[in-house]
Design a protein that fits this description.
156 residues, mainly beta, five-stranded antiparallel β-sheet, 1 helix, 51% strand
């Protein structure tokens, strides 16, 4: 009877884990020595073929609890398939004024997402996104990685 229960448990666990869909697109950049240098640009290419669908774009920043700032500034350059582009600054709030973490803290790691929900894109083809850190220092310490995820809106 115990062997049957173990088999049933393993079967249910595998079934539940296999039900979660992989993101439409996901790519991560990890930083050597937990340093994001000013000249290190993160490049992502996403092929969008269905203009009727809405997409969620998520940038997740993972820092350590030794990160010294309450925010992180970065620039995002977006190039559309027709070659047009834009460059915008963004701020990610990492901690509150009292020092408590805004993101999800697990041990000494804090993950802070920036979500652009339910976006439609105007053109079919490859979109290029380039992320560069935007603080006045030559490097940002205690940054582990940045993950860029694109998913169909409403699937998670």
């Amino acid at each position: 009877m115990k062997a049957r229960n173990k088999f049933l448990f393993v079967f249910v666990a595998i079934t539940l884990l296999s039900c979660s869909e992989a993101p439409f697109y996901e790519k991560a950049y990890s930083f050597d020595n937990k340093e994001w240098k000013q000249d290190h640009r993160l490049k992502f290419e996403v092929d969008i073929m269905d203009l009727d669908k809405e997409y969620d774009f998520i940038l997740s920043f993972r820092t350590t609890t030794d990160y010294n700032y309450n925010n992180l500034w970065f620039f995002m350059k977006t190039e559309a398939p027709d070659g047009s582009n834009s460059r915008e600054p963004f701020e990610v709030k990492v901690s509150n004024p009292d020092g408590s973490w805004i993101g999800t803290k697990t041990g000494s790691i804090v993950e802070t997402p920036l979500v652009f929900s339910r976006r439609k894109l105007p053109l079919k083809g490859k979109y290029k996104f380039v992320i560069e850190q935007g603080i006045t220092e030559s490097k940002v310490d205690e940054i582990l990685d940045v993950v860029f995820t694109v998913d169909l809106a409403g699937t998670k």
